[in-house]
Design a protein that fits this description.
Blueprint (H helix, E strand, L loop, with lengths): L5 E2 L5 H32 L4 H8 L2 E2 L8 E2 H27 L5 H26 L18 H11 L5 H25 L6 H19 L5 H18 L4 H9 L5 H5 L8 H25 L6 H9 L2 H28 L3 E2 L5 H10 L5 H11 L4 H27 L1 H13 L18
Parallel strand pairs: 1-4
Antiparallel strand pairs: 2-3
Length: 435
């Protein structure tokens, strides 16, 4: 008789320890992201707001290459390419050697991510049906989850979230990022120039050849990456896609991605170790600084922004759409497959996690600028909608997870008592019910 698979069940111990270490790094980046956004909001609504706008709109770069871009655009197109390179490395590591390589482990986060994308998009469309004026172009804005922001909220509320749910949150975000990248490439490419796009394949191929040969020389890899980015930017495809494509060429060794003690210094691990601090500590916070600086104009200005159906659709999509989509997809998997919820968890845990996934920021703001034009009035309304929706989802998730905090703490204490002299909890050494 086949034993049903457990939803949110524990993965391997090396995988759990690698995920835990990753979460600690992402948490720091999330805090920096929040700080960058907060500084931008305060500055943009201060008497010195004109100085903020002048800084954001300052143009730098060679005009001959069509790269005389504003600092805000450099942050969105350039710095976020670094962020998406790290995302691409994590995506490949998860699909090649992480939990997503096993179909029965991958089905839940994939289904949850798809549900968490479809329902917010549908709710946004329903709110904006019949409004005209190109409002429906922003249907994808509330579909993204900002994992760094979400993990920063977890750090602030100091929950003892079980490892199984933490792993699920990260895995869901990985799939969510893949879907977001696909949406940007397919639906937010205004015009396509085939020649630069085909030319971009040449430095991309050389980069791939070098990394497959385990060559780590930055003076070879960085120029090739920059050329790929420039050509992708010239093609009309959003330049951040170049970061993902470059990451996908980096080889992943299964033992390396598992993160165990025998994992060698693989190239994917090496590049992620080197570049993640740049992404989390500089790229994303600087993007947040330039993207979040919306002039609210007091309560009346906030009310005016939120009267736009686009802003309303974003708030509804992030808060209600993510919660309903992820929770419903998880229930459907447990209802119509042999998978069952792990006995240590309850459905309030799932709902709390789904609410937490409603924290959209980085990719949501990026899609908003692509949909309505950077700096446009509607883009300003998008920023207000994303900020209000994100804060609302964060508060609701914090309240629910705070209520569950005592349960999480008891689970953590029980696992600590199970630890042997080798420091590995017994629960990771027992025969798996799924095996």
């Amino acid at each position: 008789m086949t034993t049903p698979a457990r939803l949110f069940s524990r993965g391997s111990y090396p995988e759990a320890t690698r995920i835990a270490e990753l979460l600690r790094r992402e948490t720091v980046g999330g805090v920096l992201l929040i700080v960058g956004a907060a500084i931008a909001l305060v500055w943009a609504n201060s008497p010195w707001s004109a100085a903020y706008e002048a800084l954001r709109d300052t143009r730098v770069g060679p005009s001959a290459l069509h790269l005389d871009l504003t600092l805000g655009t450099w942050a969105a197109d350039g710095l976020l390419a670094v962020f998406f390179f790290v995302v691409g490395l994590e995506l490949k590591r998860e699909f090649v050697a992480g939990d997503l390589r096993e179909p029965r482990r991958a089905v839940l986060p994939v289904a949850a991510a798809v549900g968490g994308m479809i329902v917010p998009a549908v709710l946004f469309v329903l709110v904006n049906l019949g409004t005209g004026d190109g409002a429906l172009r922003g249907w994808a804005i509330p579909t993204a989850t900002d994992i760094a922001f979400a993990l920063a909220v977890l750090a602030v509320i100091s929950t003892h979230l079980p490892t199984a749910l933490r792993t699920f949150l990260l895995t869901l975000a990985v799939v969510d990022d893949l879907l977001a990248i696909t949406v940007i490439a397919l639906f937010y490419t205004a015009s396509l120039s085939v020649t630069p796009l085909l030319l971009a394949l040449l430095p991309l191929a050389v980069f791939g050849f070098l990394v497959q040969k385990r060559i780590r020389s930055w003076w070879l890899l960085v120029p090739l990456a920059l050329i790929t980015w420039v050509l992708m930017h010239e093609s009309g495809v959003h330049a951040t896609v170049a970061g993902v494509l470059l990451a996908f060429t980096v080889p992943v060794v299964r033992s390396e991605a598992a993160g165990g003690p025998d994992a060698g210094p693989g190239l994917a691990e090496h590049l992620e170790h080197r570049i993640r601090p740049l992404s989390a500590g500089i790229a994303v916070p600087v993007f947040a600084f330039f993207a979040a600086g919306v002039t609210v104009g007091g309560f009346s200005g906030l009310a005016e922004s939120l009267s736009d159906p686009v802003a309303i659709g974003i708030v509804v999509g992030l808060v209600a759409g993510k919660t309903i989509g992820i929770s419903l997809a998880t229930w459907l998997v447990s209802r119509f497959t042999r998978a069952q919820l792990d006995e240590s968890l309850g459905w309030p845990d799932v709902i709390g996690l789904a609410m937490l996934a409603g924290i959209g920021f980085t990719v949501s703001l990026l899609i908003g600028a692509l949909a309505y034009g950077e700096g446009s009035l509607r883009d300003e309304h998008v920023k207000v909608g994303v900020l209000v929706g994100t804060l609302t989802a964060a508060v609701l998730a914090s309240v629910l997870l705070r209520l569950r905090d005592r349960r999480y703490r008891l689970i953590a204490e029980e696992e600590a008592r199970d630890a042997d002299a080798d420091g590995i909890p017994d629960v990771y050494q027992r025969p798996s019910a799924e095996g």
